[in-house]
TrEMBL record, chain A:
Family: Belongs to the class-I pyridine nucleotide-disulfide oxidoreductase family.
Entry cofactors: FAD
Protein name: dihydrolipoyl dehydrogenase
Residues reported in the UniProt entry to bind NAD(+): G262, S263, G264, Y265, I266, G267, L268, E269, E285, G358
FAD/NAD(P)-binding domain boundaries: 84-419
Subcellular location: Plastid, Chloroplast stroma
Entry EC no(s): 1.8.1.4
Organism: Sesamum latifolium
Subunit relationships: Homodimer. Part of the plastidial pyruvate dehydrogenase complex (PDC) containing multiple copies of three enzymatic components: pyruvate dehydrogenase (E1), dihydrolipoamide acetyltransferase (E2) and lipoamide dehydrogenase (E3).
Example GO biological process: response to arsenic-containing substance
Disulfide bonding pattern of the chain: C121-C126
GO molecular function, one term: flavin adenine dinucleotide binding
Entry-linked InterPro entries: Class-I_Pyr_Nuc-Dis_Oxidored, FAD/NAD-bd_sf, FAD/NAD-binding_dom, FAD/NAD-linked_Rdtase_dimer_sf, Pyr_nuc-diS_OxRdtase, Pyr_nucl-diS_OxRdtase_dimer, Pyr_OxRdtase_I_AS
From TrEMBL, chain B:
BP terms from Gene Ontology: pyruvate decarboxylation to acetyl-CoA
Ranges for domain Peripheral subunit-binding (PSBD): 170-207
Protein name: Dihydrolipoamide acetyltransferase component of pyruvate dehydrogenase complex
EC code(s) of this entry: 2.3.1.-
């Protein structure tokens, strides 16, 4: 019924609206590293069917309204008055982004947070990890005698104070949390404290555990409850010697030897931190190669730079079937089984184990059963417009889910972008987010970044859809600025269609790769083609000339070149 | 017989740089596979985790001798034993780099082995270069880093803890990397890290390279303070004594050096002493009876001490970290023996469990081995309690120094006829000996030691239980 009233045209080609299998694999990878979590625990107070039944007449009216809303411009006075135009459950980066945009669009907005403002990203994810990585990057540089000598610097032995490093991460998180909270308050977003539960259509209750609940109504609701670290069964997390990223970011102890289960973003970043601070690392990866999901060429180079020369070894193609924390005078013991045959393969004894096997959506206690929504492996099913799909495959009116909780792309900035996309729709402008334009980065030293498809994904798509692809590559060794920094190790890679100049993917491994990727992600988002962007000017000497080089290397069929805009005289 | 093996690498002008391996056994034979290299270095092996340098006792072979694999080439003196180093390769002993009587750090090349006549000259030139740069075998060459793996096949008893998975070699990632880089066989190393794991330091030691500085963790201490201490420390190092004309300086043997090191270390332990007079008439009578069966006084005393220790486990305990008691599960009585200008403490393991006759037999074997310098490490460093007896010299009492790693040592004086008055005032003459126990007061207190001595004296005075 809802579907029938939204015959809006899709502004992007269909392949962008439904994600292919290979894309999902990419998601899976990204799941591991980013994403955020806003509510640590929901209270499931049981069913509220009675109230739903009693509201039945109103529900019908709302459906009528929603139908009219898509036809008429939004802003028409609703037939019922609500406490808020928009209530967002979860104040992580996704909820925050949505709230800011909602206020800008004139919506009366509230945000419910049951745990701590800022969610995973700010408190237990991207933000504190960047503080640790900032330290590890400097440590690494100062310890690299060869590098220092090449620059003509002489440094006495570099040393660090663990507590001060941990404090830096913690202070950064507090500061960002404060900024985020203040920005919401300053804009007039109501912050409602407590765990939010959907009790019926357009109706949310919230409150602290054991205290009386408050119920608010909202024209639209966005679920943005994020995720928590995923711990496979058989692994006993004690928070001391067997830990997740939540514990590791507190940097309470630096083991001599730590096993990192999972070699995705989280694992890789922590290996960078731990090895710089003097630990030795053993990776345990279920797939046959480390860093699955990265473009293979980038992965290979990254392994040569980030793994092989460091105090790291690895076991691939194995699952950690059982991990026992250190106790009774024994080290942490990890039992490995073959990922395919499930045969016991080896045991590993280490001082600590970090579980970085990805993140699980945090959607329990949301009251989804009250509105006939079933999660899939915990994820809230949504369509390409983040509209929640119920158990019968119908769209649930006025209910959206963004961020890690829907599992489309578990990255903080993806959640925020999804939130903004939802608000655009709520305020009358159809919008479908192009997930392939969302960049991802891994903040190792040097950094890894990517946007769009990997080479195998692009080849698969090209074969399926019958077009050619071409690759352009350049090394950081050819970049003046990189050489000035004595950081020539790096590769940038452009995957594009030679027939029309479309950019399919860009992958960068090298100094400041995370900052460099945006030129490419913007190009993809805006549909800029290689033959257009190659005329854009880059300052010299800068690292961004690496991308300039890529565009210039690309060979696009001249017939595809559309006429450039006439230069504007200034 | 346990053997010690080590591999050594080869430095050669050919691009091949392969580890060769030399088996090390106290006077015995062994061999290993062939490696494609022209000139191999023979390295100073590490015979124990504490050994940092070794002394060449003698070269069994001379320069130019043709060697076949398994032949003993050189005898190396470690802390307590002399070991034969045997070649795994056929070849010609081209050059001796470290001569008889000289010492070399573990991992340093001590000789060169050429595969054929043709390489002998080249090897000699190489040796000349080496000995000129390093007279009595100094630092190992870094550019041709000298990998040597060591392992005491018999488990080194002192090693803290074994891996939780028995029989598994646990090495840290960096240790494995280094081992690969320096061609050290990780399976032949004994880990000194936590849980018996092989650390990068173990590999570096085996490869004879100076450990790279670790990532530094600092407490937020005032840097000035540390600078001050480091500046102060070298100052006190050199104390000079007035030279007396005509004096003759004889360097320590390796064994003497080990004794010296242990004695200085012992100063860090707070010890105290308790003496006790014990009547030995009954013991002497028993000794006369069992002597024809090969029982020695040492065995009797060791057995008596072991039996007393069973009842006083704290006296058999050690304090390893200054924070805890380490109760030893077995009672291993080390007995100090003066030998060849040195001192060694062969250990009677499980002395409480073996009967007197077995113990005596075991003791005889140990003494023979000690004289032949063939004691295996676990035969001299696994003691939990030490017995020292100077009674045979007529010494009536003395004071022993507690060896590091043990809780107590018993010094036994001579048994002498002594006039004693009993509680009724009657005089009589009885044989009495004075025993004096030195103990670590961190774990063993006065009353513990007194009670132990009381038990010990009861056993000596009623020695029938010793024969049971």
């Amino acid at each position: 019924m809802q579907a029938s009233v939204s015959p809006l045209s899709t502004p992007l080609p269909p392949q962008f609206t439904t994600r292919s299998n290979s894309n999902l694999r990419l998601c899976g990878l990204r799941k591991e590293a980013f994403g955020f979590r806003s509510v640590s625990q929901f209270q499931n107070r049981g069913s509220h069917w009675t109230s739903v039944v009693s509201r039945k007449p109103r529900r019908r009216r709302q459906l009528v309204f929603s139908a009219s809303a898509t036809v008429a411009d939004n802003g028409s006075v609703p037939l019922t008055t609500f406490d808020y135009d928009l209530v967002i459950i979860g104040a992580g980066v996704g909820g925050h982004g949505a709230a800011l945009h909602a206020v800008e669009k004139g919506l009366k907005t509230a945000i419910i947070e049951g745990d701590i403002m800022g969610g995973t990203c700010v408190n237990r994810g991207c933000v504190p990890s960047k503080a640790l990585l900032a330290v590890s990057g400097r440590m690494r540089e100062l310890q690299d005698e060869h590098h220092m000598k090449a620059l003509g610097l002489q440094i006495a032995a570099a040393a660090y104070d663990r507590q001060a490093v941990a404090d830096h991460a913690n202070n950064l998180a507090s500061k960002i949390r404060g900024n985020l909270t203040n920005s919401l308050k300053a804009l007039g977003v109501d912050i409602l404290t407590g765990f939010g539960t959907i009790v019926g259509p357009q109706k949310v209750k919230y409150g602290k555990v054991g205290l009386s609940d408050n119920v608010v109504t909202a024209k639209d609701i966005i679920i943005a409850t994020g995720s928590v670290p995923f711990v496979p069964k058989g692994i006993e997390v004690d928070g001391k010697t067997v830990i997740t990223s939540d514990h590791a970011l507190k940097l309470e102890f630096i083991p001599d030897w730590i096993a990192i289960v999972g070699s995705g973003y989280i694992g890789l970043e922590f290996s960078d931190v731990y090895t710089a601070l003097g630990s030795e690392v053993t990776f345990i990866e279920a797939l046959d190669q480390l860093m699955p999901g990265f473009d293979p060429e980038i992965g290979k180079l990254a392994q040569r730079v980030l793994i092989n020369p460091r105090k790291i070894d690895y076991h691939t193609g194995v699952f950690a079937s059982k991990i026992t924390p250190a106790k009774d005078g024994k080290p942490v013991i990890i039992e490995l089984i073959d990922a395919k045959t499930k045969e016991p393969k080896d045991t590993v004894e280490v001082d600590a184990a970090l579980i970085a096997t990805g993140r699980a959506p945090f959607t329990k206690g949301l009251g989804l059963e009250n509105i006939n929504v079933e999660t899939q492996r915990g994820f809230v099913p949504v369509d390409e417009r983040m509209r929640v799909i119920d158990a019968d495959g119908n769209l649930v009116p006025h209910l959206y889910c963004i961020g890690d909780a829907n599992g489309k792309l578990m990255l903080a900035h993806a959640a925020s972008a999804q939130g903004i996309s939802v608000v655009e729709q709520l305020t009358g402008k159809d919008h479908v987010l192009n997930h392939l334009s969302i960049p991802a980065a891994c903040f190792t030293h040097p950094e890894i970044s990517m946007v769009g498809l990997t080479e195998p994904q692009a080849r698969e798509k090209a074969e399926r859809e019958g077009f050619e692809i071409s690759i352009a590559k350049t090394s950081f060794k050819a970049n003046t600025k990189a050489l000035a920094e004595n950081e020539g190790e790096g590769l940038a890679k452009l995957i594009y269609r030679p027939d029309n100049g479309e950019i399919l993917g860009v992958h960068i491994f090298g100094m400041h790769a995370a900052d460099l990727i945006h030129e490419a992600s913007n190009a993809i988002a805006l549909g800029t083609r290689v033959q257009d962007i190659k005329f854009a000017v880059h300052a010299h000497p800068t690292l961004s000339e690496v991308l300039d080089e890529l565009y210039k290397l690309a060979k696009v069929n001249p017939h595809a070149t559309k006429p450039l805009n006439e230069p504007v005289a200034v | 017989m346990a053997s010690l093996s080590f591999s050594s690498s080869v430095s050669s002008s050919t691009p091949f740089l392969r580890p060769s391996a030399f088996f090390l056994k106290p006077r015995s034979i062994s061999r290993l596979p062939l490696v494609r290299a022209k000139i191999r270095e023979i390295f100073m092996p590490a015979l124990s985790s504490t050994m940092t340098e070794g002394k060449i006792v003698s070269w069994v072979k001379s320069e130019g001798d043709v060697l076949s694999k398994g032949e003993a080439v050189v005898v190396v003196e470690s802390d307590k034993a002399d070991m034969d180093v045997e070649t795994f390769y056929d070849g010609i002993l081209a050059a001796i780099v470290v001569n008889d009587g000289e010492t070399a750090p573990v991992g340093a090349p001590i000789g060169l082995l050429a595969e054929t006549e043709d390489e002998v000259a080249e090897a000699k030139a190489k040796a000349a270069a080496q000995s000129s740069s390093a007279p009595s075998a100094a630092a190992p060459k870094v550019e041709e880093s000298a990998p040597v793996a060591t392992k005491a096949e018999a488990p080194a008893p002192a090693v803290a803890a074994a891996p939780a998975t028995p029989g598994k070699v646990v090495a840290t990632p960096y240790a494995k990397k280094l081992a690969k880089q320096h061609k050290v066989d990780i399976n032949k190393l004994v880990g000194t890290g936590p849980f018996g794991r092989i650390t990068p330091e173990d590999v570096e030691k085996a490869a004879g390279i100076t450990p790279a500085p670790k990532a530094n963790v600092v407490a937020p201490a005032a840097p000035a303070a540390s600078a001050a201490t480091s500046a102060a420390s070298p100052a006190k190092a050199a104390t000079s004594f007035p030279e007396i004309p005509g004096s003759n300086v004889v360097p320590f043997t390796t064994m003497q050096a080990a004794v010296s090191k242990n004695m200085v270390e012992s100063l860090s332990v707070p010890t105290f002493r308790v003496g006790y007079p014990i009547s030995t008439d009954a013991l002497d009578a028993l000794y006369e009876k069992v002597k024809p069966k090969g029982v020695t006084m040492t065995a009797l005393l060791a057995k008596a001490a072991a039996m007393a220790l069973v009842q006083h486990p704290v006296v058999n305990a050690t304090c390893k970290d200054g924070k805890s008691f380490t109760y030893n599960s077995s009672i291993n009585i080390a007995v100090a023996v003066a030998i060849n200008g040195g001192l060694i403490t062969p250990v009677l393991q499980d002395a409480d469990k073996l009967d007197l006759y077995l113990l005596s037999q075991k003791w005889k074997e140990l003494v023979e081995k000690a004289r032949a310098k063939q004691l295996q490490p676990q035969e001299y460093n696994s003691g939990t309690f030490t017995l020292s007896n100077l009674g045979m010299f007529g010494v009536d009492r003395f004071d022993a120094i507690l060896p590091p790693g043990q809780g107590a040592i018993m010094a036994v004086g001579a048994s002498k006829p002594t006039v004693v008055a009993d509680k009724d005032g009657f005089f009589s003459v009885k044989n009495k000996m004075l025993v004096n126990v030195t103990a670590d007061h961190r774990v063993i207190y006065g009353a513990d030691l007194a009670a132990f001595l009381q038990t010990f004296s009861k056993i000596i005075e009623n020695p029938e239980s010793l024969t049971m």
